[in-house]
């Protein structure tokens, strides 16, 4: 495992669309392992592959309920609305409120290439939307409804 460098806002890679993973192989698992290690080392709740310069549809999330690894994730259902404070490892020192669905259902492949479906509510729903947005070059700062003062930033 290895900690990878996290790209910061202003890097054009963060604005590109990531391509689907065509085969979940050893390289994909290596990427997942590195991304999890990088996320934990940076004390983040989620990380998307474009943030480490890899334009593939891969994300890791841990909102305190264990590690979630998703390959080619897609939101297949969403309901409700919530406003949560978000931050992003690519936008250091800032936090802001974004409107997201209160609940989302996501289909993806796991690290063995098997289809999985997860349902996220509350902050997990927000994290799923935030990370999947990264795969399409979208940052939470594009969707801010309120910027929080710097002293509230982690
Ligand atoms: Ni982010």
UniProtKB/TrEMBL annotation:
Fe cation binds at residues 88, 130, 134. The active site is at 131. One of its GO terms (molecular function) is metal ion binding. Pfam families: Pep_deformylase. Its EC number is 3.5.1.88. Its cofactor is Fe(2+). Removes the formyl group from the N-terminal Met of newly synthesized proteins. Requires at least a dipeptide for an efficient rate of reaction. N-terminal L-methionine is a prerequisite for activity but the enzyme has broad specificity at other positions. This is Peptide deformylase. It comes from Candidatus Alectryocaccomicrobium excrementavium. The gene is def.
């Amino acid at each position: 495992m290895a900690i990878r460098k996290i790209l910061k806002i202003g890097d054009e890679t963060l604005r590109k669309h990531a391509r689907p993973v065509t085969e979940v192989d050893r390289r994909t698992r290596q990427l997942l392992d590195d991304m999890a290690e990088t996320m934990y080392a940076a004390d983040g709740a989620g990380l998307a592959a474009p943030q480490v310069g890899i334009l593939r549809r891969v994300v890791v999330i841990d909102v305190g309920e264990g590690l979630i690894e998703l390959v080619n994730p897609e939101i297949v259902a969403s309901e409700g609305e919530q406003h949560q404070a978000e931050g992003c490892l690519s936008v250091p020192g800032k936090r802001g409120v974004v409107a997201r669905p209160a609940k989302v259902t996501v289909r993806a492949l796991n690290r063995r290439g098997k289809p999985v479906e997860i349902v996220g509510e509350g902050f997990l729903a927000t994290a799923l939307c935030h990370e999947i947005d990264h795969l399409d070059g979208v940052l939470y700062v594009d969707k801010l409804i309120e910027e929080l003062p710097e002293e509230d930033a982690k």
